[in-house]
Structures are given as structure tokens and as C-alpha cells.
Inositol monophosphatase family protein (Pseudogemmobacter faecipullorum), 281 residues
Amino acid sequence: MPQSPRQSSAQPLCAADLSPALIDELTTTAHALADAARKASLRWFRHPGLAAESKESQRFDPVTLGDREAEIAMREILARLRPDDAVFGEEQGVTEGSSGLTWVLDPIDGTRGFLSGTPTWGVLIAVGDASGPLYGLIDQPYIGERFEGGFGRARLQGPQGEQPLACRGPRGLDQAILFSTFPEIGSPAEAAAFQRVAGAVKLVRYGMDCYAYALLAAGQIDLVIEAGLQAYDIQGPMAVIRAAGGIVTNWQGGDAAQGGQVIAAANPEIHAAALALLQAG
């Protein structure tokens, strides 16, 4: 699994270590990245000439000009505004930095949805240090929704104005709504673990990509469970969900910042109930 860029040996940063001026600079930069990626990706969304190549030979893992141009646009802004920061992007890999901060970029999370014309893909942006993401955005360009979390912020900006983000409160697992991207999640053992949770909840939905995490932060659903993720798939959503009061870990209850098996939950209670079923085998 690709790892985020190497960081210096200095102690990890946290929001309390950052000055108000630096926090403002980082959030302003993040929104500038999202604006640029919106423009670049929408140029190709539902475009009759959109084509896709597959990154893998064994399965269809598409990449489009929308993905590539959106990441290029974001990297150009970072090179100008934050040249000392490291960058880890899905399409262009790692650029080392010296500041102790890393930008983790997924220019289009959900390229299959993008290619199919569904508005469930999104632009994922996170900035953090060696300990993981400190701040993140989930942006859905076509709908015009932007979910923001970190540095004391947890909000949605969209067609209905600005609203606070807050995850759902505790409820029984039999009342929960669970999302995942693929019904055939991961390996056979991972699929069996997922099905133990899926069989216990009220409703299961598939195919939402990063929009599922946005809905979790917005208080609409209770759980997202996936396997085989990369750091750029989860770090932006992780920051947003944590800011909204939720919890994101791996299936062992540990750090999920590098991807792999991920469970995102609206609260510790439903996280614990789902985690127990994932581990029951």
C-alpha cells in the first residue's frame, strides 16, 4: 500500500500547535484546491467524449482526464502557495516536503461513478502531519456541496446554505443504516465479516464512494465499512467525520490513516457494536 511522504523527526503537529494565521492559510489553500478541482472535473463530467483507461489489467480501475487535470490544478496551487509542504496524490504520487505538513489528494474519488454520470463522486483533500489528517474537505462539484472538518470547524456549505455537521447519536445496530462501495467487499474473509454486520442492520446501501462518508458526517447514516482503501481515500473523510463527532478506525480498532480495512461510525457505541461483529470470525 502506498505510504504518505516521509516526515521530519520533529514531534507531530496538532491544531493547538498551529497559529491562527497558519490555520487560516491552510484552510484558505484547501478551499482554493477544491475550487480548482471543481472546475477541472466538471469540464469532463457527463461529457460525451469522456474516455477512461484502466490502471489495472485484472479488473477495471478507471482513470480519466478529469482525474488527471484536477490533480494537476491542485498541485499547481500548492507549488505556488505551500511549496515546502509534502504532497501525496492518487495520480502523481509523492512529492517530498520539509514543513512537516502533507497534503493528501484524491482528485476524483469514485471515478466509476464519475464515468457513469452519477453525482456520488467527490474531491478529497486533507492536510496533516505524521500523526494523520488535521483538516479535510469532501467536495461534490456537481451538487455544489462541500463538507469541511477540522481546526474547530464542522460544516456543510451547499445549495441550502451553510449548516453544521453532526453525526447521529447512539441507536441499536438493528436501527442502523450501513453504506459500502462494493457488495463484493475485499477478500472472502473480509466479505464474510462485512456480511455479519450487514445482516444485523436495518438498511444496507452500496455504491456511494466518498459521498457515504459525507452523509455520515451530516447525520444521515450510521456506518461505512470498506476494505482495500488507500490513504488518499480516507484521510479527507476521516478529518470531516471526526470533526462532526464520529469515529474512524481500522477493523482492529486502530489507526486508519493509511487506509486498508476501514470502519467509520457515527458514535463510539455503534462503532463498538459493529466492530465486535467484524471481529467475531
Helices lie at 20-42, 65-81, 111-116, 188-198, 210-217, 231-243, 268-278. The chain has a mean pLDDT of 93. The CA atoms of residues 29 and 81 lie 7 Å apart.
